[in-house]
């Protein structure tokens, strides 16, 4: 097991464990309306109505990680996208704790998918609540990871931690995620978002990697050129530099995908993360 890092000054939210819930995200969103200050985490061994980004159903198989965390952060709304990177980084590092040092390396796919040998191992879903003066009232961060079983998905290859090691207990992984989440929240508070951006880039697809991104009905292809200060993906395309605030990196090259696309207006969505 790789060495752990400390959570800094941030108090780790208490973990509530349930045998079965409809959705850990929905549980947290409902509770968010009932308290002005409370933070907590919810782990379910089974979800009956789990969901991913863009309205996708999420296969919540027993033995895998189904975790959501309710956080209270009074930050400008435009900084919510940074938590997509922060949460993805926390998930990757938590999973790496259980992999031998000489084992396979995990990688981040923008903004917060965790990959094992190019296949999806886990991901993050974020919902936000707006408060006064265009500031956040709360965030609900959902973490999902294939610990024991990799679900079969029609649009992407998947992986499970069980390919490398005996699958760890979801409770153990949940505590590791909370510790890394606390650590990176503390780093952000003391060093700003630049520390999160730099750490994320160190774990992500290398610069100049060829990426293909779906933005609505548009396909944009080019070389990865980094991230903007607002956490948007930067691509160097044949038509010039594009900054994409939202979109989905595709696994592999789609058939007949154009080498570039005409510039489009920048898009923004409330749920900045995707599962």
Provide key terms for this protein.
single chain, seven-stranded mixed β-sheet, 2 domains, SH3 type barrels, 27% strand, five-stranded antiparallel β-sheet, globular, 275 residues, alpha+beta, disordered C terminus, 12 strands, 4 helices, BirA Bifunctional Protein, domain 2
- Return the CATH topology of the largest domain: BirA Bifunctional Protein, domain 2
Q: What count of domains describes the coordinates?
A: 2
Structural class: alpha+beta
Strand content: 25-35%
CATH superfamily of the largest domain: Bira Bifunctional Protein, Domain 2
Spatial shape: globular
Number of helices: 4
For the record, the CATH class of the largest domain is: Alpha Beta
Strands in their spatial order, largest beta sheet: 1-2-3-7-6-5-4
Number of strands: 12
Unreliable spans? 1-6, 253-275
Q: Provide the CATH architecture of the largest domain.
A: 2-Layer Sandwich
Largest sheet: 7 strands, mixed
Radius of gyration: 18 Å
Q: How many angstroms separate the termini?
A: 26 Å
Helix content: 10-25%
